[in-house]
Every structure is written in structure tokens, then in C-alpha cells.
Specification:
heterodimer; A: mainly beta; B: mainly beta; 3-stranded antiparallel β-sheet; 12 strands
Chain lengths: 110, 112
């Protein structure tokens, strides 16, 4: 079973704070790293697909970086807003499979 | 937009019942997946399918089976439901194993 770890498990921040969390994955047989955002009562939605070491992706206030050699990705949220409250999932692709981490549950307090 | 539809949002069944969870996607995707999500454990893969009539076990297949008779439909079957199968079940599809997955809204299943 592929081991994909996310930390922290949960995070509470104030509106306006910037925050980041981590996804760790096996560094061998890397193909892609995915980030998803999962709001309560909705289905997970894809944020980013990252394939190259050193990749940086950005969508509005959310950005992500990738280090395939050491096996980690960071997700950053700048100036958090209450609508950013969600569970953020990462998923690791090797040549054959995709496996999800347990997610980081972010709560942004107004 | 891809639409993945799960037949029920909420379902309550009794121990020992045979339970069917249905999933339909409308984008002609080859690959379909069933996950369960439990607090602190994230999405765990139960079964997946890369083609009609094809199925592969995921990480936690025990107590489940699947059926893929048509490309657009992937059914998860609990042969004899047990209380430890109370969970949120998510179906997903994709047009390539390395592409982002498109998820249904989930079925929250309670086994009493």
C-alpha cells in the first residue's frame, strides 16, 4: 500500500492569516501529485496536478510546490477566508495507482 | 462538465442486508473507483475498474464486491452489511489513471 501522509490533520486559523500544509509521499516511481479541495456536503474538486520536480502551481490565493526527490508537496493559502474552510486532500500517482492522504481539515474563523 | 451521480445521498440499512450503491458517469470515462471515507483515515480505495467487466481490488476489498456491466455504471455491493461498514462512500471516474478524478457527492451509509 502506498503511504501518503498529510500534516497537520486539522488546522484552525483566523481570517486573513496565511497558512500551509504538507503532503509526503514515496519518492520512487513518481508520476504525479494531485491536490483536491473537499468542502462539506460537496464532492472533492481537483485543484492542481503536479508532475515535475520544482513545479509551482497557483490558483488565486492558493498555490502549491512539489519536491519529488524528497517526496513532499506544500499547499499554501494566502490571506485565508472563511470560504477556504474545507478538507484539502493530496493524492500520489505512481506508474500504476493513485492513493490519497487522510487530508488536512482547515477551518478559517471570521 | 463531468457528472458523476451516486444513487443516494443517505441510506440506512440493517445488519445482514445486501446493499447496492450505484454510480453513473456521463463522460465515457474508462476508469471508475469506489472509496470509503472515515474520520482520520481519508479516502481508502475499495475497488476500481479500468474497463467494462473488469475489476481490481483496492486496499480494503473485504466484505465488498463490484459490478461493471456497462461503461457508465459501477456498482458497489455489500454482500452482507455489517456495522463496521457504516461510512461515507464516494465514487469517482477519470479518463486516465494519472488524470484528476471526478467525484460524486457521496453516499452516507448507516448500518444498524
Amino acid at each position: 500500500i502506498l503511504n501518503v501522509e498529510q500534516s497537520p490533520q486539522s488546522l484552525h486559523v483566523q481570517e486573513g492569516d496565511s497558512t500551509n500544509f504538507t503532503c509526503s509521499f514515496p519518492s520512487s516511481n513518481f508520476y504525479a501529485l494531485h491536490w483536491y479541495r473537499w468542502e462539506t456536503a460537496k464532492s472533492p474538486e481537483a485543484l492542481f496536478v503536479m508532475t515535475l520536480n520544482g513545479d509551482e502551481k497557483k490558483k488565486g490565493r492558493i498555490s502549491a510546490t512539489l519536491n519529488t526527490k524528497e517526496g513532499y508537496s506544500y499547499l499554501y493559502i494566502k490571506g485565508s477566508q472563511p470560504e477556504d474552510s474545507a478538507t484539502y486532500l493530496c493524492a500520489f500517482n505512481n506508474n500504476n495507482d493513485m492513493r490519497f492522504g487522510a487530508g488536512t481539515r482547515l477551518t478559517v474563523k471570521p | 462538465d463531468v457528472k458523476v451521480t451516486q444513487s443516494s445521498r443517505y441510506l440506512v440499512k440493517r445488519t445482514g442486508e445486501k446493499v447496492f450503491l450505484e454510480c453513473v458517469q456521463d463522460m465515457d470515462h474508462e476508469n471508475m473507483f469506489w472509496y470509503r471515507q472515515d474520520p482520520g483515515l481519508g479516502l481508502r480505495l475499495i475497488y476500481f475498474s479500468y474497463d467494462v467487466k473488469m475489476k481490481e481490488k483496492g486496499d480494503i476489498p473485504e466484505g465488498y464486491s463490484v459490478s461493471r456491466e456497462k461503461k457508465e455504471r459501477f456498482s458497489l455491493i455489500l454482500e452482507s452489511a455489517s456495522t463496521n461498514q457504516t461510512s461515507m462512500y464516494l465514487c469517482a471516474s477519470t479518463n486516465g489513471v494519472h488524470q484528476p478524478q471526478h467525484f460524486g457527492d457521496g453516499t452516507r451509509l448507516s448500518i444498524l
